[in-house]
Design brief:
The protein has 93 residues and is mainly alpha-helical. It has one helix and no strands. It has one helix spanning 2-92. The longest helix is centred in the middle third of the chain and has 91 residues, at 2-92.
Length: 93
Amino acid sequence: MSALIALFGLAVFAVIAFTAVALLAVVAKVILLPLRLAMLPLKLLALPFIAIALLVKFAFLIAIGSVVVALLIPLAILALLIGAPIAIISALT
């Protein structure tokens, strides 16, 4: 019988602990909501700077990609100039 009472006490403790954690999460959201609303104009002021940073980032990535492609094209031509005679010779023997 005492084991059943202990199990019931453990279940009550688990329910109370779960409720406390949920209540703590709700209180944290309620406390942080005015702070987030106060910071919203600052975030909106920062949006043009973020957009410019993203534009520069994508321009940089496109420039680097085009340089890589521009370097790979002569390497491919060189590989074909070296590899084609070798392939022809190996096909004849």
